[in-house]
């Protein structure tokens, strides 16, 4: 591959809804566009089953099928896609540099769409029952658990929000927290405590998830007495936080204390030519539709940026 083939107008790092949407818009606008997909091509949606809340699919669609459709649409627009992982970046020179193994790519602009990864309990049974009763998003999956008993693990605002949201569907929601008091804000604690469908289990850790093909029980252990108990639930929502996939960008762009990209104006970072879209900066909504929306916005912002350069 010669150097000219390594030069692009726009390089998109990441390939979930944000990355693919950005690719569709950027290529359609006539830019020479490259997507470097990362390890999990298609992002977190590749690990989900039915997606019922993405507009345009009245009967729902498998997460993997939705991403396959977006991928094909990118290719139809002329986006080049490399199924590899970025090893390092250099945003301190112009053009911007991205290294993928021993290959170096240069570009006039970059859109970071690397997303965020939910924190996990670290249980092998958690992995086994993923999408079989284990979830990390109540808004995404809550409607699949109507009239069932559910558990939410966590003690912060996100966990309270998940628990309260799940009461719309569940017959009962058990909140499991490893400490003796919640970390959530006072108002969120009050809302959760006043909800008669929510039951709290303090000083408890989930040490096992059991069932056959779906979650049927969780085993709790008291953090003080080590006593164990079995709780009958048919779904468990892990709400102990997310980790933005921004390790690559430390000392390159401005990140907040939790590692999320800080946007200075719309989708722009603090570095000229570097933009971001999706869960890599959005720690509030974390939905496929909002990620796609941010991808669209970033591509339009890049178009304006490149036009002003010329």
Describe this structure in words.
With 310 residues, the chain is α/β, with parallel strands linked by helices. The chain is 25% helix and 27% strand. It has seven helices and 19 strands. It has helices at 17-28, 63-77, 124-128, 138-141, 157-166, 186-194, 288-309, and strands spanning 7-13, 33-36, 50-51, 61-62, 80-82, 88-90, 96-100, 103-112, 116-118, 134-135, 149-153, 172-176, 198-201, 204-211, 215-222, 228-232, 236-238, 242-244, 274-276. The strands form five sheets. Strands 1, 2, 5, 6, 7, 8 and 19 form a seven-stranded mixed beta sheet that branches. Strands 10-17-11-12-13 form a five-stranded parallel beta sheet. Helix 5 (157-166) links the parallel strand 11 (149-153) and strand 12. Helix 1 packs parallel to helix 7 (288-309). The chain is elongated, with a radius of gyration of 21 Å. The two termini are 27 Å apart. The model has no long low-confidence stretch (mean pLDDT 95).
Number of strands: 19
| Rg for CA atoms | 21 Å
Assembly context of the chains: single chain
Order of helices and strands: EHEEEHEEEEEHEHEHEHEEEEEEEH
User: Structural class given helices, strands, pairing?
Assistant: alpha/beta
Identify the overall geometry.
Answer: elongated
Output mean pLDDT. Answer: 95
Strand content: 25-35%
Topology:
Layout: E1 7-13, H1 17-28, E2 33-36, E3 50-51, E4 61-62, H2 63-77, E5 80-82, E6 88-90, E7 96-100, E8 103-112, E9 116-118, H3 124-128, E10 134-135, H4 138-141, E11 149-153, H5 157-166, E12 172-176, H6 186-194, E13 198-201, E14 204-211, E15 215-222, E16 228-232, E17 236-238, E18 242-244, E19 274-276, H7 288-309
Parallel strand pairs: 1-2, 1-8, 2-5, 8-19, 10-17, 11-12, 11-17, 12-13
Antiparallel strand pairs: 3-4, 6-7, 7-8, 9-18, 14-15, 15-16
Helix pairs in contact: 1-2, 1-7, 5-6
């Amino acid at each position: 591959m010669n150097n000219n083939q390594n030069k692009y107008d726009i390089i998109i790092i990441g390939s979930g809804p944000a990355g693919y949407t950005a690719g569709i818009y950027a290529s359609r606008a006539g830019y020479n566009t490259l997507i470097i997909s990362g390890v999990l091509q298609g992002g977190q949606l590749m690990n989900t089953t039915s997606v019922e809340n993405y507009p345009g699919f009245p009967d729902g669609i498998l997460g993997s099928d939705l991403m396959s459709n977006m991928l094909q649409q990118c290719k139809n627009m002329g986006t080049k896609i490399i199924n590899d992982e970025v090893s390092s970046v250099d945003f301190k020179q112009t053009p911007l540099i991205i290294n993928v193994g021993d290959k170096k790519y240069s570009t006039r602009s970059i859109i970071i769409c690397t997303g965020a990864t939910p924190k996990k309990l670290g249980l092998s049974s958690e992995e086994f029952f993923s999408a079989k009763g284990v979830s990390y998003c109540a808004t995404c999956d809550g409607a699949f658990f109507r009239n069932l008993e559910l558990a939410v693990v966590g003690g912060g605002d996100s966990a309270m929000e998940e628990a309260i949201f799940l009461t719309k569907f569940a017959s009962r929601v058990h909140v499991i927290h490893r400490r003796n008091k919640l970390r959530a804000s006072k108002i969120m604690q009050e809302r959760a405590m006043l909800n008669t469908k929510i039951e709290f289990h303090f000083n408890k850790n989930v040490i096992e998830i059991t069932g056959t093909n779906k979650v049927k029980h969780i085993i709790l252990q008291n953090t003080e007495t080590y006593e164990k108990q079995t709780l009958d639930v048919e779904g468990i929502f892990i709400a102990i936080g997310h980790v933005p996939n921004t390790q690559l960008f430390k000392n390159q762009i401005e990140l907040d204390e939790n590692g999320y990209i800080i946007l200075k104006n719309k989708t722009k970072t603090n570095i000229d030519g570097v933009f971001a879209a999706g869960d890599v900066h959005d720690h509030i909504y974390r939905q496929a539709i909002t990620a796609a929306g941010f991808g669209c916005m970033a591509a339009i912002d890049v178009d304006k940026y490149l036009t002003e350069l010329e």
